Amino acid sequence: MRSAQQILAEAEVIAVVGASRDPHKPAHSVPLQMIRQGWRIIPVNPFVDEVFGIPTVPTLADLDEPVDLVNVFRPARDAVDVVRQAVAVKAPAVWLQSGIFSAEARQIAEAAGIDYVEDRCLAVERALGRLTRLS
To answer: Hey, what CATH topology would domain 4-128 get?
Structure first.
C-alpha cells in the first residue's frame, strides 16, 4: 500500500465526495487549495449543479472518466457506501478527511486492494510534503 504522500503525489484527478459551495466549510476550502496547486477536482454532490465553477456529478457512478483518488467529506456513517462506490468505479485510492474513521470502510478498501487513508487532511498532507501539480 502507498503512503498518504505517495497517493497524493501520484494523483492528478481527485473526485471530492461532499464538496461544498460554502466557503466556510473544509469541504470547500480544502479542494479549492488543491485546485490552486494544480490538481483537477471533480466535485461529487447530488444537491448542487456546480462547485468552484465546475459541474458536479451526483454520485461516483456518474463519473465519465477515471479518477486517481476519491476524497471523502461525508460523515463516517456514509463512508462505507462511498468506499463501495469507489471500488465499483475502480478508483485506486480513497481518502477520508480529518475526523472521519470507519473500520468497515477500511476493510472494504483493503479487500478490494485499493489504498486507504482516514482521518487526514488532504491540504495538510499536501503542504507537509510540499507537493504541487503546478509546473
So the answer is: Rossmann fold (3.40.50)
